[in-house]
User: Which sequence fits this backbone?
């Protein structure tokens, strides 16, 4: 009995230290970053496009826009292909083929992001430069690379959502004279809606937070992109590029950028969890 | 009652149904007449459900399924290449053993089959909902809460809702696969009452494991055993003096 208690205590300690690690990171980022945000004010920090560390100007508006624009682009690409794949794999393709394809798609998630960035630099960037113009390092290139990177997340969570819809709904719909496509979008997608929304939001979280691949293909300029062929800088690439040499207020400003990123990702994750949980509850009713 | 002077509604001609190369129903030939209530009885694995699922081509969804022979509906081969399968499934409406309402309101469940055909007019939809629910003997119970989730209904009510959503499509033929297997006697009685009324306008094929139900709710009986049709005959004759001793054994409860 004594031994049991000791083990339970030890395990509890390990669990608590993992959670407190998360809490410490949160406290640390806010402690380092928040003072500068308060000093510059919302207007001077969030809504200013003037990022010039030497002149002590720290406006991250262009990076917020950059992050949101490439995330939106990535989600259009990732959702169209990811949801399409999920529909094909769960509904229209033979089970044996799906059993091979699904693990392959999930394997994509295991490729290091620097490899995605590298492939983007050597194939997509020159392709865009040669055929569409501009520097090639652009919103479009970044969106494509990120879109491929979020594909496994969107696909596998959407597959789980579609699989949780009872097969009898599908058959019932077919028996009522609906075509396969009508049954897919009027019954299956509708019943799996909350899971699919959660999949898209989790994919967004990945896209917003991705750093390495983005640095390699986005161009890292400090302007708000006005066309899909313009280069840009994101919140993540700003931190990664400048952290190495930043000191004093500059360093604080990078932490403040991290605070911004942290809040955006937390909002996305909480939204995804809430929507997914609500979906589970309404399915069990 | 059975009218044998007209062309049969459904003609099953030398049909063999197999799954993954294994025959579950062999060399079946059977005529089903307009407006008759045919009950198909027989022990488990005798091919009853497989036949039903061929009549509206639901078996098409099954991998490894094949059918040989011919099935004619009003003289036309339903497996001909130019057949509109979705339209066929609206003409041959199916009710399952386990009621599966779609996860929406009762109203939406009934109008779904109409919406997919492009009917949008609210008055038409409302009218079909009311008439089909009345035919399924459910209208009085749920008319005040049509927009509540269908899953709130009891099992017996769900099954009648499933019958109503099929009736809303104005089918020619109703095929019912043990529709009362999970229901209490009162719900069963209501479904049998509905079927008796519906025979005036529909041809009804009822698969049942319950021989008492077959005797109450049919005009004619087909007895299947191990993938073969043993015999068919008017309900009263099958129950009083069947031609085949195996039929007698089954309905008197000696096996099955």
Assistant:
């Amino acid at each position: 009995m004594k031994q049991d208690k000791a083990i339970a205590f030890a395990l509890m300690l390990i669990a608590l230290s993992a959670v407190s690690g998360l809490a410490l990171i949160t406290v640390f980022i806010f402690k380092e970053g928040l003072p500068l945000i308060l000093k510059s004010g919302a207007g001077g920090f969030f809504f200013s496009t003037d990022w010039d560390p030497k002149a002590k100007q720290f406006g991250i508006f262009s990076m917020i826009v950059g992050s949101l624009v490439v995330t939106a682009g990535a989600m259009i690409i990732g959702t169209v292909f990811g949801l399409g794949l999920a529909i094909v794999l769960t509904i229209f393709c033979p089970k044996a083929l799906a059993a091979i394809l699904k693990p392959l798609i999930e394997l994509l998630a295991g490729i290091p992001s620097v490899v995605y960035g590298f492939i983007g630099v050597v194939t997509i960037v020159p392709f865009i430069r040669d055929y569409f113009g501009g520097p090639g390092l652009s919103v479009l290139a970044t969106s494509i690379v990120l879109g491929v990177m979020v594909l496994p997340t969107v696909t596998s969570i959407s597959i789980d959502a579609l699989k949780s819809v009872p097969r009898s709904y599908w058959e019932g719909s077919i028996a009522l004279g609906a075509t396969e496509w009508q049954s897919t979008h009027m019954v299956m997608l509708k019943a799996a809606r909350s899971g699919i929304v959660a999949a898209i939001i989790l994919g967004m979280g990945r896209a917003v937070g991705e750093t390495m691949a983005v640095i390699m293909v986005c161009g890292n300029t400090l302007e708000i992109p006005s066309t899909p062929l313009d280069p840009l800088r994101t919140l993540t690439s700003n931190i990664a590029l400048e952290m190495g040499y930043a000191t004093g207020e500059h360093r604080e400003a990078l932490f403040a950028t991290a605070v911004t990123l942290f809040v955006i990702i937390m909002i996305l994750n909480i939204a995804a969890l809430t929507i997914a949980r609500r979906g589970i509850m309404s399915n069990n009713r | 009652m059975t009218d044998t002077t007209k062309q049969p509604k459904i003609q099953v001609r030398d049909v063999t149904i197999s799954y993954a190369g294994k025959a579950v129903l062999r060399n079946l030939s059977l005529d089903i007449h307009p407006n008759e209530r045919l009950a198909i009885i027989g022990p488990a694995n005798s091919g009853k459900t497989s036949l039903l699922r061929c009549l509206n081509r639901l078996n098409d969804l099954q991998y490894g399924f094949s059918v040989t022979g011919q099935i004619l509906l009003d003289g036309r081969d339903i497996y001909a290449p130019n057949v509109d399968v979705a339209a066929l499934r609206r003409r041959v409406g199916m009710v399952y053993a386990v009621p599966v309402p779609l996860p929406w309101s009762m109203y939406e469940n009934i109008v779904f089959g109409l919406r997919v055909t492009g009917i949008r007019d609210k008055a038409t939809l409302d009218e079909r909902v009311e008439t089909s629910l009345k035919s399924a003997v459910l209208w009085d119970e749920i008319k005040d809460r049509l927009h509540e989730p269908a899953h709130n209904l009891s099992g017996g009510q769900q099954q009648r809702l499933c019958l109503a959503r099929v009736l809303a499509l104005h089918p020619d033929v109703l095929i019912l696969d043990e529709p009362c297997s999970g229901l209490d006697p009162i719900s069963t009685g209501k479904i049998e009452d509905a079927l008796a009324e519906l025979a005036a306008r529909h041809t009804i094929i009822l698969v049942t494991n319950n021989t008492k139900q077959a005797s109450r709710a049919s005009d004619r009986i087909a007895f299947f055993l191990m993938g073969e049709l043993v015999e068919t005959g008017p309900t009263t004759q099958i129950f009083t003096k069947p031609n085949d001793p195996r039929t007698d054994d089954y309905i008197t409860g000696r096996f099955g």
Remarks:
- The CA atoms of residues 129 and 183 of chain B lie 23 Å apart.
- The longest strand of chain B covers residues 22-32.
- The domain at 37-45+82-251 of chain B is CATH 3.40.50.300 (Rossmann fold).
- The interface with chain A takes residues 56, 58, 61, 63, 86-87, 89-90, 93-94, 96, 98, 100, 102-103, 112-113, 115-117, 149, 151, 162, 165-166, 169 of chain B (CB under 8 Å).
